[in-house]
Specification:
Blueprint lengths: L6 E7 L4 H9 L5 E7 L10 H19 L5 E4 L2 H4 L6 H13 L3 E3 H11 L4 E8 L1 H13 L3 E10 L2 H4 L4 H11 L6 E4 L10 H8 L3 E3 H13 L14
Parallel strand pairs: 1-2, 1-3, 3-4, 5-6, 5-7, 7-8
Helix pairs in contact: 2-4, 5-10
């Protein structure tokens, strides 16, 4: 397959604004991407674990819309939803999507785990924008995959659209605040925060790899495409 014919199909939650922004900034010019939105339903104006589970269960059907455009890769980009069906739910979802759609497929948590392995991280600090009931599921999935989460922090946002308003410098400051001695990497999770933009400067300050949801999703999709090249400001992961 020529570089010009490489296409990523990405599913994002209906409220997400940052995933596409990050792909516009960082996706290589010779790789095309296409975005489909999945409804992230709310209860009393709040996204709940049940909302994320429903999105997880609907992911394959929604991905069929992307299948129609004949993508090279499909990725389901919602960190919380990718872990909403148990600690190995992300792996099972990727396998089912690949088998049922006939297209190499992945999701945010699967991509994060592969990215952390790529940078050689075992002991990590995990920062999630939302309450502990959400960050706990992410932490459990990471630990089930063999990572030691030496610190897991929830920032207690209740609306992902509000989390999206944090600028990269604010996110870098939060990461610096929660950095721990002995960590191999820091993970800034959530596809709707501007963490990818903070990676390069934060790695200089911390001296360890920084992995973010959208960064990991892009890197993972490019790996599935067997794309080779460099992403300026993409961080150690792309080195």
């Amino acid at each position: 397959m020529s570089q010009a014919n490489k296409r990523i199909g990405m599913i994002v939650p209906s409220l997400n604004t940052i995933g596409e922004d990050d792909f516009r900034r960082f996706c290589p010019a010779d790789v095309h991407y296409h975005v489909h939105r999945i409804r992230l339903r709310k209860e009393a104006g709040v996204v709940t674990p049940e909302s994320l589970l429903r999105a997880h269960l609907e992911a394959i059907e929604e991905a069929s819309f992307l299948k129609d455009l004949n993508p090279s890769v499909i990725t389901f980009n919602c960190t919380g939803a990718s872990v909403a069906c148990g600690v190995e739910g992300d792996r099972r979802l990727a396998e089912r999507m690949t088998a049922e759609l006939g297209v190499p497929s992945s999701n945010t948590m699967t991509a994060i785990k592969r990215a952390l392995q790529k940078v050689g991280a075992r002991k990590i600090v995990h920062v999630c924008p939302f309450a502990d009931k959400f960050s706990t599921e992410e932490k459990a999935s990471l630990e089930a995959a063999g990572f030691e989460v030496i610190k897991s922090v929830g920032l207690n946002f209740v609306d992902a659209r509000e989390a999206a308003q944090m600028d990269p410098e604010e996110l870098a400051g939060i990461a610096m605040q929660h950095a721990e001695k002995g960590m191999d990497a820091i993970l800034l999770s959530c596809a709707n925060v501007r963490a990818f933009e903070a990676v390069a400067v934060l790695e200089k300050r911390l001296g360890v790899p920084v992995v973010t949801s959208n960064q990991a999703v892009l890197w993972d999709a490019l790996q599935l495409l067997e794309w080779t090249g460099q992403i300026p400001q993409g961080g150690i992961l792309f080195g």
